[in-house]
């Protein structure tokens, strides 16, 4: 696919060279890069060149510079046409210090259709060098119910995994379970005190959560109980058989519940390792830090003092010998360097941990770890989710459980569908699951990650926009294609196109040439201005995939899919697709099929399924 902006930059740089040489001025060879941008929505052109930045060099009014630049550009365009050399610019005009450029209509159309022919479901994949990328996400705490605080990291991480996989990277999905820490000392104490009061059968995590809330409250009232809990954790660290057995039971009960949620959300992992997996490496880590002279005694504990106002100091070993989260993260980072030799290691963790990951990177640097791995360690922070009443807390018992949220999403969708007469009960159940769960996924990914959110049910389950709208557009297009004679079936070439068997949600149409003819035979003059807008938007897809990947921001792709869906809706409202003129119908079928492919890819990357009906 032609990189339109790069092609324009090359041409403009050639013209600017002429202007600067005439003035006897040396030009920055990349000058045009900063001058060219896509035109704003209120301008009819495709790209604009701003000449205000050239005024200082050329010592002329920007309007005069734009006039001269436009004149020379038009001469250049005419020369290329006379030589029968391809030029993507149809025309250029100067206006108030800008040169506006229009790209030839056939460029967008031909590029999109040819690329779809060649790449199919990998239409948006770039040509970047393949990287080894680790994505750590979800990481729920053992013996605590899966609440909406865990949901955010799970959905962001899964989307980024799929995005990197789609882009051609070698990606590893890691679930770093919170199965270690002083909270287990508390939980063991509560379990030993009150286990006979609970069945641990119907909802084991709820029972454990209730015990944790009770023991936490008791610790606030009784310092001796709190100290006993600390001792319990030390015994667990030292391998006390009774305590290890209880802890393993907590882990097994928790994983059973977690995987029920993961299955609903279509989430899976390549590696699941808890913090406890690194317990045997703790002494080695502490010894390495000692050898590097990084540790400092502080009232019986061991700390690292960074002598930096921003990084402050960090506790590595408590006075009772227990290790902390940072110590275990150092051990995990060293393991991943040795095991995976990564280019990027992403940690999808809340913004509250920004300092923690800055300290982790600095510790690895001070330990003498190869700079490649230090630079490649990337924290992907996201804003906190709060209730309208304030911050959530397991120990306070005020959390929203994910399974309850997902059930509510499905139930609310079902109520909307109950108003439709054209669906039977089984269809309503199936659609409600795909649309309701998809809405929850999309609601967590369609804003900038760093923004804090207040959890409001009506906002999360707003079915007037978001993914239900995109799903509806896909269903509508599939319906039109079916009416035209298309067969909806899976393309076996793309059966596992994101590297996970469960990712196959593709509504792929196999017989496009049989029904709509070959793309190269399309008469592009059939397409209206609104159709051209859609082709331009489709042409952006690869750039949006890359931008979302580079910035690690799902909302970029989410907004793109919504914009494309709205463009299709406007087109469909004003133009009939299935028409008597065979050439016109075939051209339009190719266009809407291209929209379906791009929206399907996008929803797959988000982990959202497309229903057959809505």
Question: How would you explain this protein's 3D organization?
Answer:
Strands 7-6-5-11-12 form a 5-stranded parallel beta sheet, with helices on both faces. A 4-stranded antiparallel beta sheet has the order 1-2-4-3. Strands 8-9-10 form a 3-stranded antiparallel beta sheet. With 614 residues, the protein is of the alpha/beta class. The chain contains 22 helices and 15 strands. Strand 3 and strand 4 form a beta hairpin.
Element layout with pairings:
Blueprint: H1 4-23, E1 36-38, E2 47-50, H2 55-58, H3 62-82, E3 89-95, E4 98-103, H4 105-119, E5 132-136, H5 148-166, E6 170-177, H6 182-194, H7 204-221, H8 223-237, H9 241-265, E7 271-274, H10 282-291, E8 296-298, E9 301-305, E10 313-317, H11 325-340, E11 344-350, H12 354-366, H13 371-376, E12 377-382, E13 385-387, E14 390-391, H14 402-417, H15 425-443, E15 453-454, H16 457-460, H17 466-483, H18 512-516, H19 529-539, H20 541-551, H21 554-574, H22 582-606
Parallel strand pairs: 5-6, 5-11, 6-7, 11-12, 13-15
Antiparallel strand pairs: 1-2, 2-4, 3-4, 8-9, 9-10, 13-14
Helix pairs in contact: 1-3, 4-19, 6-7, 6-8, 7-8, 14-15, 15-17, 17-21, 17-22, 19-21, 19-22, 20-21, 21-22
How many strands appear in the DSSP assignment?
Answer: 15
Low-confidence regions = 501-508
Q: Order of strands across the widest beta sheet?
A: 7-6-5-11-12
Oligomer: single chain
- Principal-axis shape equals globular
Taking all residues together, what is the mean pLDDT? 89
Helix tally equals: 22
Residue share in helices?
A: 40-55%
State Rg. Answer: 29 Å
């Amino acid at each position: 696919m032609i990189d339109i902006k790069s092609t324009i930059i090359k041409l403009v740089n050639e013209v600017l060279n002429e202007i600067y040489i005439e003035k006897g001025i040396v030009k920055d060879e990349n000058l045009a890069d900063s001058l060219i941008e896509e035109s704003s929505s209120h301008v009819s052109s495709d790209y604009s060149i701003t000449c205000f930045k050239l005024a200082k060099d050329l010592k002329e009014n920007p309007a005069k510079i734009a006039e001269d630049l436009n004149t020379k550009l038009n001469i250049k365009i005419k020369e290329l046409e006379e030589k029968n050399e391809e030029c993507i610019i149809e025309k250029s005009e100067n206006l108030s210090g800008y040169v506006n450029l229009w790209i030839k209509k056939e460029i967008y159309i031909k590029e999109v259709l040819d690329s779809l022919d060649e790449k199919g479901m990998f239409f948006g994949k770039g040509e970047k060098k393949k990287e080894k990328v680790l994505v750590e996400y979800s990481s729920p705490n053992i013996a605590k119910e899966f609440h909406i605080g865990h949901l955010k990291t799970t959905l962001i991480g899964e989307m980024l995994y799929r995005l990197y996989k789609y882009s051609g990277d070698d990606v590893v999905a890691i679930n770093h379970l919170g199965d270690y820490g002083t909270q287990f000392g508390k939980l063991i104490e509560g379990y030993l005190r009150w286990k006979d009061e609970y069945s641990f059968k119907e909802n084991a995590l709820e029972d454990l959560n209730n015990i944790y809330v009770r023991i936490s409250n008791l610790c606030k009232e009784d310092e001796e109980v709190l100290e006993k809990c600390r001792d319990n954790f030390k015994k667990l660290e030292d391998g006390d058989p009774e305590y290890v057995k209880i802890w393993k039971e907590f882990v097994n009960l928790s994983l059973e519940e977690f995987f029920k949620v993961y299955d609903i959300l279509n989430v899976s992992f390549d590696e699941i390792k808890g913090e406890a997996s690194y317990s045997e490496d703790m002494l080695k880590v502490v010894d390495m830090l000692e050898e590097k002279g990084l540790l400092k005694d502080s009232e019986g504990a061991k700390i690292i003092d960074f002598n930096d106002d921003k990084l402050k100091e960090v506790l590595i070993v408590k006075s009772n010998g227990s290790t902390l989260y940072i110590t275990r993260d150092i051990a995990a980072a060293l393991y991943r360097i040795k095991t995976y030799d990564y280019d990027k290691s992403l940690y999808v963790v809340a913004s509250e941990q920004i300092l923690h990951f800055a300290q982790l990177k600095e510790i690895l640097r001070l330990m003498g770890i190869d700079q490649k791995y230090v630079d490649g360690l990337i924290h992907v922070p996201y804003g906190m989710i709060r209730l309208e009443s304030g911050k959530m807390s397991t120990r306070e018992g005020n959390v929203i459980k994910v399974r309850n949220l997902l059930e509510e999403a499905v139930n609310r969708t079902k109520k909307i569908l109950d108003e439709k007469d054209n669906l039977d009960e089984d269809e309503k159940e199936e659609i409600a699951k795909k649309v309701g769960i998809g809405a929850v996924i999309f609601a967590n990914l369609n804003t900038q990650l760093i923004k804090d959110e207040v959890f409001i049910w009506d906002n999360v389950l707003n079915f007037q926009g978001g993914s239900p709208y995109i799903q509806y557009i896909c269903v509508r297009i599939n319906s039109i294609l079916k009416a035209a004679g298309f067969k909806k079936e899976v393309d076996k070439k793309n059966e596992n196109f994101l590297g996970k068997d469960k990712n196959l949600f593709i509504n792929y149409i196999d017989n496009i040439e049989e029904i709509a003819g070959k793309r190269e035979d399309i008469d592009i003059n059939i397409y209206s201005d609104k159709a051209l807008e859609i082709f331009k938007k489709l042409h952006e897809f690869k750039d949006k995939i890359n931008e979302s990947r580079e910035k690690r921001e799902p909302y970029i792709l989410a907004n793109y899919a919504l914009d494309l869906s709205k463009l299709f809706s406007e087109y469909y409202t004003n133009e009939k697709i299935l028409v008597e003129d065979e050439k016109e119908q075939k051209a339009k079928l190719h266009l809407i099929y291209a929209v379906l492919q791009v929206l399907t890819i996008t929803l797959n990357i988000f982990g959202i399924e497309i229903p057959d009906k809505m």
